[in-house]
Amino acid sequence: MTEISTGGSKAAKGASALAPRILELVASGQASSRAELAGLLGAAASTVSLAVSQLVERGLIAEEGTQPSTGGRPRKVLRLGGADGFAVAADLGGRHARVGVVLPGGGLTNVSTVPFAIADGPEAALPRLAETLQALAEDHGRGRLRGVGLSLPGPVDVASGTVVMPSRMPGWTRFPIIDWLQERFGVPAAADNDANCMAVGEHTVRPAEHRQSIMVKIGSAIGAGVIADGRLFRGATGAAGEITHIRVDGGADTPCSCGNTGCLETVASGAALVRILRERGAQVDRLEDVVRLATHGDPEATRAVRKAGDYLGQVLATNVNF
Prior knowledge:
By secondary structure, the protein is α+β, with helices and mostly antiparallel strands. The chain has helices at 10-27, 34-41, 45-57, 122-140, 177-185, 194-204, 265-268, 270-279, 287-295, 299-319; strands at 61-67, 75-80, 86-92, 96-102, 108-115, 145-152, 156-157, 162-163, 189-193, 213-218, 222-228, 231-233. A five-stranded mixed beta sheet has the order 5-4-3-6-9, sandwiched between helices. The radius of gyration is 21 Å and the shape is globular.
């Protein structure tokens, strides 16, 4: 099993602790030099430099070329390494998870959907998922596994590596998801909210001049990932894109999964659309049924989708002016 730590000193241990976050920042394009990493991490430049050197030695980070500096020597440009490696990843949903292998450069292979009951809690659900990811790693050469990542349908405190206040994930609050993954797989791990992951993924394939964007994910709840000035914007509490529980006038007294009433998800989420159409007599079981009816011009489905769009638009209008 590959160990993250490379030494017993406090400096080495501190550097090793930064490894997952450094990989995340470099992979997402938020940082491409040691100086940028030090600024974003709020860590000493020497500690960050040691952590980067450790990752370079292991082939997880590569250095190529230089970029201009406002003073001193030109900065070496950092990128993900591991041309001979791969990562395994999973996108978690309420009842299923999409799993696959991430190749150097971001390509995906061996993508499939497997059962995953998030309501069972992490202790019950994660071991089964880990077995699936381990099998993928074995198929591609376990010794070349360079990392593991998860996207979750709830807020993640990336600083502590824990899930925080997820309204639809019973038993997950303060669960140390990143530590759990690293102990299980022995490689750097990353985890984040699914809407944030989507926002970063979309941003990386856009032209460099597109530095501001909002990615919205609609399912059982509604989430948004915000890119500001080319970087993922988390806000003061790390929940900048958590729009699902913003109150809207049309919500009235409809109860929400968070325990309050009148939240956006009660009138504009996939679950809300299914509920609304059922109340109107439509035979729908999931969001795909709603989309099918609306696509074929069903009046009730079309009316419900348009109204949901109105509510969502009202909330997004405030987000683009933050």
